[in-house]
Amino acid sequence: MRITLSTLLIAFVGAAIAVGPGPNQIKNLVTFGDSYTDASQTGDGGVAWPTYAAGYGNFTLFPFAKAGATCSNNLTFAPFLSVAEGQIPAYVSQKNSGEINVPPEETIYTIWIGTNDLGANNILSGQQAPGVTVVDTTTCAVNWAKTLYDTGARNFLFQNMIPLQKVPMYQPNAYPNRYWTAARNTTAWSLEMAELVNAGNTMARLMLKELTPTLPGAHVGLFDSYALFSDIIVHPGNYLNGTAPLNVTDAINACVFDVDEPTNGPSFCTTATGTDKDSFLWWDEIHPSEQADRVVAREITDAIKRKSDKWSTWFS
Ligand SMILES: *[C@@H]1O[C@H](CO)[C@@H](O)[C@H](O)[C@H]1NC(C)=O
Ligand SMILES: *[C@@H]1O[C@H](CO)[C@@H](O)[C@H](O)[C@H]1NC(C)=O
Ligand SMILES: *[C@@H]1O[C@H](CO)[C@@H](O)[C@H](O)[C@H]1NC(C)=O
Ligand SMILES: *[C@@H]1O[C@H](CO)[C@@H](O)[C@H](O)[C@H]1NC(C)=O
Ligand SMILES: *[C@@H]1O[C@H](CO)[C@@H](O)[C@H](O)[C@H]1NC(C)=O
């Protein structure tokens, strides 16, 4: 056979468009993030999505996400192990000591961060480090891939932020709750949160796309959590399956405080139990429910195993 330039070109282009990991490539799942992802101190009142995903996909799970975390405590401080200063160093030290075995080809890394960076007690209410904006927190989240790449990691799936303006805490008609009892303009907060999340997610997409060519040999993907949660809100019947009326506005475990007497504890709580719980999108005023997390786990697993690219985009 005569090898022509065009044969070579076709071979090259063929290799270049093989984006994303192969369907049976990934065996290990390494997770970074906050309470949405923390596998031991779970945020959903049940089992966390990485534990479900490990079961659905037969992955070995290496969980590094920590409840309360932000991307960097230098930018948006929270008294928990942030991704940059706490979680990545913990991962690197366990990898270097041989405590964990994560061959690059068969290991994928995920990050789901931003809720605490943007939210109350940080950017939304002005407690971030001076001058810090959503540009800095987004840059930090995207840099996670570069930092891990430099330690040998090769497969990345970046989960963008959900529509946080729709969680009970940041809805226009939000009530004083366990996460925030002080008076605030709930309409203004909801509007601001919509701006922050949409700007952050759009920047993340562009920054990941720009980063990708600088990470040769890597697979870089974006999982669109914003689109998935928006679809759950519009079509709850496709995702929620409990025995109560489907509910995408209120929480399974909701507590209303008195804005004048917050230290007295909640004035009243409503709690859904048993099979009613799976009718709800939200566990409490901030967190997705366990059924929402089963959906996240299923969709992430399908993205990693390349059964579906419905919510994911592979840049390489
Ligand atoms: C699950 O993964 C383990 C470790 O990678 C492997 O030994 C086992 O065969 C897998 N099981 C199934 C059912 O695929
Ligand atoms: C955070 O600040 C500390 C102290 O200045 C510094 O050593 C560290 O590198 C910073 N972290 C990041 C991610 O820049
Ligand atoms: C709350 O914020 C909204 C949106 O910015 C504004 O229209 C409204 O006047 C504010 N309400 C109060 C009481 O300040
Ligand atoms: C959602 O749940 C809340 C709290 O249990 C309840 O007050 C509300 O009526 C429910 N909404 C729907 C549409 O069922
Ligand atoms: C809802 O579906 C999940 C699987 O996504 C299942 O584990 C759960 O038991 C179902 N809930 C109910 C109340 O049937």
From TrEMBL:
Q: Name one GO molecular function term.
A: hydrolase activity, acting on ester bonds
> What is the organism of origin for this protein?
Cerrena zonata
Does the keyword 4Fe-4S feature in the UniProt annotation? Answer: no
Protein name as catalogued: Carbohydrate esterase family 16 protein
The record ties this protein, via Pfam families, to: Lipase_GDSL (PF00657)
The keyword Signal is assigned to this record: yes
Q: Where is the signal peptide?
A: 1-18
**Classification via InterPro entries:** GDSL (IPR001087), GDSL_Est/Lipase (IPR051058), SGNH_hydro_sf (IPR036514)
Sorted alphabetically, the keyword list is: Hydrolase, Signal
